[in-house]
Amino acid sequence: MTVLCQVRQLSVTYRGQEVPALAGIDLDIHAGERLAIIGESGSGKSTFARALAGLLPAGASVAGSFHWAAGHPPHAGRDIGFVFQDPSASLNPVLTIGEQVAEGARRHLGLSRKAGQAWALAMLERVRVPEPAKVLRGFPHQLSGGQRQRVAIAAALVARPGLLIADEPTSALDMVVQAEIVALLGDLVRDAGMTLVFVTHDIALASGFADRVAIFRDGRLVETGATGAVLAAPEAAYTATLIASHRDLSTPPLIGEAGR
Ligand code: ADP
Ligand code: MG
Hints:
Blueprint: E1 3-13, E2 22-30, E3 34-39, H1 45-53, E4 61-68, E5 80-83, H2 97-109, H3 113-126, H4 132-137, H5 145-157, E6 163-167, H6 175-192, E7 195-200, H7 203-207, E8 212-217, E9 220-226, H8 227-232, H9 237-248
Parallel strand pairs: 3-7, 3-8, 5-6, 6-7
Antiparallel strand pairs: 1-2, 1-4, 8-9
This protein binds adenosine-5'-diphosphate and magnesium ion.
């Protein structure tokens, strides 16, 4: 298996904070895998996702290294697509959907205005937005949360990145829409042969489609391994607690078919 990125001894401390948000993370991202980053709120998941994409705020102090197989750091937006929890974070409220998806196509792929519009329409079809031609002419506020997230995914994928990072992309959505979006992401990464880093606090959700899991707690990597192996026989007591807390809540089966 090819390693897309080796993360070594990554530590991040935000300006004005005494406690690091991440401390000494060693983690490999494998090319073509679906990796779930799992942890409770505040465990450093988003910090890891942003650090990987080169999207940390100015003033965050970073130690450690990223060794990319490509030999150079990827370009966020072109080589890496990023989907946020709140699609409003990536969509501009005053531009039509068509303008903003096409703008990415023009900027990153060098398409003409007309070709950019056609590409945007094709992207909306790929993320299964109903009535894509109509959505293209509309604004983000005219869409439901789930449709907005589909559009944000289209915008993230517009330049055909090799790596998609999704940071809790479904936590703001209701259960049914959540399952649809997870299935959509699974299909998209499979069809395009993309690598997926999926951040979630929900171990049950992750276990349905991730090949590998990485469990974060208080800025540290607690354990990592193949999803089935970690769930069946967690090495860390903390992981066992996370799994048990879900069984207690009688959530859906931990190993499911979602997204496959
Ligand atoms: P998670 O995504 O797992 O909830 P985060 O990576 O967002 O965790 O946060 C990890 C820690 O870093 C938390 O203690 C959080 O309060 C802190 N943190 C996150 N973003 C910032 C920021 N921009 N400035 C200061 N502290 C931050
Ligand atoms: Mg977060």
